Amino acid sequence: MLSCFSLIAQKKTLTPDLKMKVFIDDLMTKMTLDEKIGQLNLLDAGDIVTGQATNSEIGKKIKEGDVGGLLNIVSVEKIRDVQKVAVEGSRLKIPLIFGMDVIHGYRTIFPIPLAMACTWDMDLIEKSARIAAQEASADGLNWTFSPMVDIARDPRWGRVAEGAGEDAWLGSQIAKAYVQGYQGDDLSKNNTIMACVKHFALYGAAEAGRDYNTVDMSLQKMYEYYLPPYKAAIDAGAGSVMSSFNEINGIPATADKWLMTDLLRKQWGFQGFVVTDYTAINEMIEHGLGKDLKDVSALALNAGIDMDMVGEGFINNAKELVKEGKVTEHTIDAACRRILEAKYKLGLFDDPFRYANDERAKTEIFTPENRKEAGKIAEQAMVLLKNDKMLLPLKQSGTIAFIGPLADNHREMNGTWSSAGEWDKSVSVLEGVKNVAGPLVNAIYAKGCNLITDRTLLKQLSGEASIDSRTDDEMIGEAVATVAKADIVVAVLGEPAEFTGEASSRSELGLPGRQQELLKALLKTGKPVVLVLMNGRPLVLEWENEHVPAILEAWHAGTEAGNAVADILFGNYNPSGKLCMTFPRNVGQIPIYYNHKNTGRPFSPSTPDEKYKSRYMDVSNDPLYPFGYGLSYTNFSYSNLKLDKTSISAPGSIKISVNITNTGRVDGFEVAQLYIRDLVGSITRPVKELKGFQKIFLKAGENKTITFTLTAEDLAFYNDKLEHKAEPGDFKVFVGTNSANVKEATFTLEK
Ligand code: BGC
User: Fold this and answer.
1) If you write DSSP's letter for every residue of 6-63 in order, what string do you get?
2) How far from 360 is each of 107, 182, 371, 415, 603, CA to CA, in Å?
3) Is the distance from the beta carbon of residue 502 to the nearest atom of ligand 1 less than 6 Å?
4) Is residue 722 within 8 Å of residue 728, measured between CB atoms?
5) pLDDT in tens, 375-430
6) Global pTM?
7) How far is the CA of 278 from the centre of ligand 1 (A)?
8) For residue 201, what are the CA distances in angstroms to 179, 198, 251, 256?
9) Does 268 sit in the ligand 1 pocket, CB within 6 Å?
10) CA nearest 704: which of 718, 713, 694?
């Protein structure tokens, strides 16, 4: 034990890490086993009411030293109250950590993460996370349960809205951008918050897209297609990780020692702490892994879980488990230390109230600058899916009918997981049109039909969507009558926000309710129809694609949704979003993704009648809109694909250049994408793999040559022994505007 004097003398000369160690060593010597276990307990703020923290049930537990942190508590006032209980009322005065799902913005809401990924713009994504952190920390929070980096190939899963789509390479860049945005360069600053990478692991691969469902996957597939974004977030310094609900190959993630300790800590060197998902420990009883909460708590602790979210398995059982020798005290110490380290890094021991600042809460949240940034991101996230005969952009003149349950809607704009966002302050499309075009456009409106009509379905939603008192037939009739007065029709249709996010899996992916019938009625009027879609997942749009001349995928785009849609409709912003997830033609094609294998009997479109091929008899293998797809109001032509050499050998690299010309009449962004195919491997390789992209701005008529560099390392993959190696042989390289429309060349990787 160090004397007080030598401790002070030492502290002056120590590195920050050692200083932290000395501080925590000292604190932990004072802690009882109960107090250590208390740090592992994360509770939902539930019953805490402003001014009554001390007397609440949770307040009592905090005083006892039985709570390490709280989630879902909003406002400086409440957080200050509760923190006071911890640092004034508990024996060791250890501050609490405060977490929340700040997923795509705090009060200023950005597009849902799936949409943000369609910007292919890492600076914008990082900026959105920076703003989210700034606002959340100004309101007292210091920890967010984001980013969700689960790769997903199945749009039936409602949580695809929360992730970055289907590609591990793109997903990894995005994971890093979020972590950097939230955490900045110094976690102890009062405007940065700790990230929590979730859901570890493979939650996005739930069978049949049904939430919480089973995952069974080869290690090779995991390492190559699903794990990289978690690793990227950890390499970027994410302070915490959340375990997932699903089982993996028979073991729920929350009890998976291989996952939580061998992979995460030993292989990847993760130094932060692991929290479970909401009651994930308790749920392992239902999974059939243990007979009671004590059993499953032991499994979680021994697997390497540090903090128990809400289930109170650790707080009620850990001491006994230690006494019985089923969990070592060392395991509890290690978990407690990691949580204390997180608090230390956040600066909470220096000042437990550093995030509770009334002035910041008043001035830094929902500012005009933040809203402007949200608008910019919303514009860049939207994807133009179809634009026959350049129907878009619209002229700012005449009468335009805005029809549909989402045309003048505020509630659904913010999308899933936006609980701190005030939906009534979001901008509807009709308002956006008025803001952008003012008196130049006579904008008329009819709701047209309900967003959903099925009352049983409505019961599953928490009352956010509502059913109109008029019948859909009446509303369709009114819409048709409104359209009669207009020159052009903009139908704004889609999904309620609550059709996506957690526990929102769907088995049919068309427009819900009678929206397609409404669309048919609008088209029947003979007026030109533009379809604006607001949804949180790839939908099945084959009919719409066949019949509607122009389609804009606007997603659930957040606070500034309406302004962004209006700017795109009138050509103030030239759409540049590119899909980060494939849109299927029908549900039967799912799972469908661009980086599939070739099979031994690949289907060839040039011999469409061949039977014994890997194909469907009743639908083509191609998706409706491929990964990377998105149109612009201009055209970009690719030419002169050149490689600087025909072969490389490690550690060399190859340069791939291509010329891109903006051949249209307006300026715009293009996302040029680079893919490879390894033609022969020791295990089979996908038909394409994304390995790079560049988002460039080209003025009308301008052309630019862009250059990508591929190293031998970029060609590496996990072989059947899980070695990450590039194998000599021939490669194809593709560059183009999306994963299906590319130019190609070949090169060789020499031994
Ligand atoms: C979700 C997590 C979320 C947590 C806390 C869970 O139900 O799966 O993504 O972070 O709740 O709100």
Assistant:
1) HHHHHHHHS-HHHHHHHHHHHHHHH--HHHHHHHTEEEE-TT--TT-TTTSHHHHHHH
2) 14, 17, 17, 26, 60
3) yes
4) no
5) 999 999 999 999 999 999 999 999 999 999 999 999 999 999 998 999 999 999 99
6) 0.97
7) 6
8) 17, 7, 12, 10
9) no
10) 694
* Contact between residue 628 and residue 578 where contact means Cβ atoms under 8 Å apart: yes
- Alpha helices (runs of H) in 184-312, residue ranges in sequence order: 219-221, 228-235, 257, 283-287, 293-303
Q: Which atom of ligand 1 is closest in space to residue 196's alpha carbon?
A: 10
* Residue to substitute in 144, 310, 502 for testing ligand 1 pocket (most ligand atoms within 8 angstroms of CB): 502
Protein residue with its CA nearest to atom 5 in ligand 1: 278
Q: Identify the residue whose tokens are 């694609």.
A: 545
**Which is it for the CA torsion 619, 622, 627, 628, positive or negative?**
negative
What distance in angstroms lies between residue 280's CA and the mean position of ligand 1's atoms? 10
Terminal alpha carbon distance of the chain: 58
Q: Helices H, strands E: what count in the chain?
A: 23, 26
User: What are the φ and ψ backbone dihedral angles of 642, each rounded to 5 degrees?
Assistant: -135, 145
Residue 254 CA to ligand 1 center (angstroms) comes to: 14
Helix (H) or strand (E) holding 717: strand 717-718
Which pLDDT score is estimated for 95?
A: 98
Distance of CA 448 to the CA centre of its chain: 32
- Whole-Å CA distances, 78 to 62, 75, 84, 101, 204: 14, 6, 10, 17, 35
Angstrom distance (rounded) from CA 53 to CA 62: 10
Q: For 91-125, write each residue's pLDDT tens digit.
A: 999 999 999 999 999 999 999 999 999 999 999 99
* Residue 150 C-alpha from the chain's centroid: 8
Using DSSP, state whether 697 is helix, strand or coil.
strand
Give the other-Cβ count within 10 Å of 334's Cβ: 15
d(C-alpha 78, C-alpha 85), whole Å:
11
pLDDT band at 1 (very low <50, low <70, confident <90, very high): very low
- Does position 29 have pLDDT exceeding 80, yes or no? yes
Report CA 576 to chain centroid distance, whole Å.
19
Gyration radius from the chain CA atoms: 27
Residue with tokens 């194809």: 732
For 607, the 3-state DSSP assignment is coil
pLDDT digits (tens, 9 = 90+) for 715-724: 999 999 999 9
- CA–CA gap between residue 115 and residue 494 (Å, rounded): 14
pLDDT at 5 over 80: no
